[in-house]
Amino acid sequence: MATRLNSTDRRVLYLYGVTQSQPAKPIVHVGVDLQSPVEVIECQGVMCWLSRVSAEDFENSLTRNMENLEWLTTASVAHQRAIQAIAQHVDILPARFGTVFRDERSLTAHIQKQLKQISRDFKRVKDADEWGIKIFETAPTTTSVPKVSSGKEYLMAKAALLPKNKSAQIPAEELSEFQDELSGIADESAPAGRISSGQRGLLFQTSLLVKRAHRQHLESVLKKFSRKWSETRRIECTGPWPPYSFVSQDSKLQ
Amino acid sequence: MSTPGTLVFSDTNDDDQLSLVDILDHVLNQGVIVRGNLVISLAGVDLVYIGLDVILTSVETAMRHINATSGLPGKAS
Questions:
Q1: Which of A24, A44, A118, A193 is deepest in the core (most CB within 10 A)?
Q2: Is the pTM of this model over 0.80?
Q3: What is the DSSP letter of A135?
Q4: Please, which residues 50-69 of chain A have a Cβ atom closer than 8 Å to chain B?
Q5: Is omega for the bond preceding A240 within 30 degrees of 0, making it cis?
Q6: Is the CATH code 2.50.20 the one for domain A128-246?
Q7: pLDDT exceeding 70 applies to what percent of chain B?
Q8: Is residue B60 part of a domain?
Q9: Is A237 helix (H, G, I), strand (E, B) or coil?
């Protein structure tokens, strides 16, 4: 994806996130550009996880690259993997995708300015993970497309088999019963899903911050509602994610 | 913290690749410029949600670049 880095290329610091401590064993992982290693440096008593990446790709051309879905997919999956590698060992406050600093001095200055909020956020996400919840309208069981004589007819027939995109809604009472149960388990919730908001049949989605000790409780509630809704709806739950959606706007690590 | 996966509470799921869309959902949720919903319509039929479709296609290319060792969400049940 990225152009090959030459030793003479200017580099910027790409920040993955910050942690309060370092794992006992060093983390060896490739960075967001699939070339530079993940490194850790200490700033103001906070561990900053970063890679030294091409300034051309991640500073000058970032906006243009973000519009290239192939580049964006590769980079954001690599970003997730790097953060995941850290999060497996220590609680992390993830930075936004595409957060870069010119040098260590500008990174240190930023961390210093945000230090209070960062320490509040560490408490907020302690021993907790983010979970994504989606409810889909269940697709009809028929999957075969009848014989057709033109491409247009084929597409029409295929479309007829798909759940209607906007027709169905979860009755308010049922949805609030579901949300009430979840709010008893999650510390917080956040709006979710800019990318998948157009998924067909998607009725509802949210991100939850859930203490690890409550994970089984979350699963049992989701199972309960899945059984209850088995005729009409499907629940999908992804995670555990690093707490991407629960870093304060004020302490945005960017 | 373990590697993220997808728990599907029904037996009708047939789309493993959604987890990659989910990666983007979470990673990009907090703020990058993402193009709006682009729906391609062909012969009067909404074909695909192009964002998803292009992403899923580009993931194949992405995977060729990525050293598949860790961090890729699998599917749990």
A1: A193
A2: no
A3: E
A4: 63, 66-67, 69
A5: yes
A6: no
A7: 10
A8: yes
A9: strand
Question: Mind listing the pLDDT tens digit for each residue in A144-174?
Answer: 666 777 777 877 777 766 655 555 688 999 9
Strand boundaries in chain A, DSSP class E: 11-19, 39-43, 46-54, 92-94, 100-101, 128-137, 188-190, 202-211, 233-241
Mark yes or no for CB contact A234/B20 under 8 Å: no
Question: How many angstroms away from the CA of A149 is the closest CA of chain B?
Answer: 14
Spatial separation of the C-alpha atoms in residues B48 and B50, rounded to whole Å: 5
CB atoms B29 and A244 under 8 Å: yes
Q: Cβ contact (<8 Å) for B10 and A235?
A: yes
How many domains are there within chain B?
Answer: 1
Two tokens, residue A20:
């309060």
A3–B contact, CB cutoff 8 A: no
Give, in order, the Cα–Cα distances in Å from B34 to each of A42, B26, B27: 32, 13, 12
Q: Nearest chain A residue to B11 by CA: give it.
A: A234
Task: Print the domain residue range for B40.
Answer: 5-68
Whether B70 shows a pLDDT value over 70: the answer reads no
